[in-house]
Design brief:
125 residues, alpha+beta, Arc Repressor Mutant, subunit A, 3-stranded antiparallel beta sheet, 5 helices
Length: 125
């Protein structure tokens, strides 16, 4: 959490107990998490969770995206990376390899690739 505070200058944000709980979990996760992944680890209702998540998005502290399962996933905004979502098992992976393409004149915020993960691809052969 200290790295997040220094990097994103969140010292001017009021860190309530609910906000700190959510941020602590997201900071310590190595993958994006949905509400269902978090609900057993936090003590707050769904409305409070989403109100705080919206606040974090407005403050540019977290990224979010929707997956195959129609759930919204959240993660701390840190290193730019690509998300790979398996069409078969719905696993979400963070890929830190830089893509070998660019789009002239565009600023890309998010790249989500869909296909078969390595494991599903191997099991099919």
């Amino acid at each position: 959490m200290d790295n997040l505070t220094k990097k994103n200058n969140i010292s001017n944000i009021k860190l309530t107990t609910a906000r700190k709980s959510i941020l602590d979990i997201l900071v310590n996760s190595n993958k994006p998490l949905c509400y269902e992944d978090l609900k057993d680890k936090i003590i707050m209702d769904k409305a409070t969770f989403y109100r705080n998540i919206s606040f974090f998005e407005e403050q540019n502290l977290i990224n979010s995206f929707e997956s195959n399962d129609k759930k919204r996933y959240f993660e701390i905004k840190d290193k730019e990376h690509i998300h790979f979502i398996c069409s078969n098992c719905s696993t979400i992976e963070c890929i830190y390899q830089k893509p070998n393409f660019s789009l002239d004149g565009y600023k890309i915020d998010t790249i989500i690739l869909k296909g078969k993960c390595k494991e599903c691809n191997l099991n099919e052969q």
